[in-house]
Amino acid sequence: MKHADMQSPVSFFANVARLPQKGLPVVIGADPAQRAALAEAHGLLSVEAYRAELLVTSWKRNGVKVSGRVEADITQACIVTLDPVQAHIDEPVEALLLPEDSKLGRQGFESAGEILLDADGPDSPETFSGDTIDVGALAEQFFGLAIDPYPRKPGASLGAGDDTGSAENEFQQKLRSLLGKS
User: Fold this and answer.
1) What would you measure as the largest C-alpha separation in the chain, in angstroms?
2) Which is it for strands 63-77 and 46-59: parallel, antiparallel or unpaired?
3) Which whole-number Å values give the CA distances from 174 to 107, 163, 168, in the listed order?
4) Which of 94, 103, 130, 133 is deepest in the core (most CB within 10 A)?
5) Are 56 and 18 in contact (CB under 8 A)?
6) Which of 47-56, 98-107, 147-156 is modeled with the greatest confidence?
7) What is the pTM of this model?
């Protein structure tokens, strides 16, 4: 999976050519315009707060490890009532990235071209080109994956509406009366 060419509202490019020994700490706090762009990009009513705290470190010979967490307060529309539903996201960020031309990236492939994946193991490394990685876009990917695709207001449920119950009863009564007449 390559990083999209479209820039993230919270893009932050880290230079990975010369990473400090202890790693490069990156803190991204989204301003109101960035939060509005995040809300629009992810189909949310609003993003009240967004903060990513990451550490970019060297991994293996020329790879990069990005770890940390992304936290956010968001408001979504309930899938049943469309009322606003507040949610808090606190998602760990873990990613390994390798240069496009790295031999390590090809070690997952067998000679027959099959790729070996361990479902419980770490994700296979993504690739990057050049000397920079958009760690902001990476954090946004984890943010997006943490969003509940089916937000529900407490107590709201599909098919629990009173009107469907009475309509069924009315239908059943008509059916009974028809069956009774024959």
Assistant:
1) 88
2) antiparallel
3) 68, 17, 10
4) 133
5) no
6) 47-56
7) 0.74
